[in-house]
Amino acid sequence: DQQVKQNSPSLSVQEGRISILNCDYTNSMFDYFLWYKKYPAEGPTFLISISSIKDKNEDGRFTVFLNKSAKHLSLHIVPSQPGDSAVYFCAASAPNNDMRFGAGTRLTVKP
Amino acid sequence: DAEITQSPRHKITETGRQVTLACHQIWNHNNMFWYRQDLGHGLRLIHYSYGVHDTNKGEVSDGYSVSRSNTEDLPLTLESAASSQTSVYFCASSGQFGNTIYFGEGSWLTVV
Question: Which residue of A has its CA nearest to B47?
Fold first, then answer.
């Protein structure tokens, strides 16, 4: 029962363009959403988060959008840089602190 | 940021052996988690703990156990290792009132 889904296993964009990574969830109890970035042979690192009371959170080149009615969130990276190439995991947590992750999307930013 | 260390970082073991992966965090976080990462599945929760002597099963807990005798450590034990448990294991922790969790660098386990 995958409660958090990332339907695109990979994404390739040109340097300087926008990267849009998508995530869908099924559990209406989730109230906090996060994006993690993972390089090979390293642990995931926290990137950006959003609470369910907001629909947008911005941090530099990274913006997360939340559409609660559609149970959908997305991560926008503008402009994309080669150093952004990594696997991005979407995560969602419920009030009991149980956090679930999507399968990840591998982003490749081409110079 | 939290600092979490995992050991061993790499291990090869035989089917049927008992294996323990150690996890130590220095920030006195109450919440600790074990995930495994497999291609196509992302990060799946194995076990988690909200404090000393508290343990809970996650999505894929069969064949694994944890114990929490102090705040800093949450060792993960594979009672009888199986080839299906070949994976990368990540330990994580979070503070009591925060939702952001911080990960260790991972332990690569191969069961042959």
Answer: A98
What residues in B contact A4, CB-CB < 8 Å? 42
Which chain B positions have a beta carbon within 8 Å of A93's beta carbon? 99
Nearest residue in chain B measured CA to CA from A95: B99
Q: Are B80 and B17 in contact (CB under 8 A)?
A: yes
pLDDT by residue (tens digit) across A33-57? 999 999 998 999 999 999 999 999 9
What are the DSSP calls for A61-103, one per residue?
TEEEEEETTTTEEEEEESS--GGG-EEEEEEEE-TT--EEE--
Distances (CA, A) of A106 to A85, B50, B64: 7, 31, 29
User: Which tokens is B39 given?
Assistant: 């291609």
Interface membership of B48 toward A (CB under 8 Å): yes
User: Tell me: the pLDDT tens digits for B17-41?
Assistant: 999 999 999 988 999 999 999 987 8
Alpha-carbon dihedral A27, A48, B45, B48, rounded to 10 degrees: -100
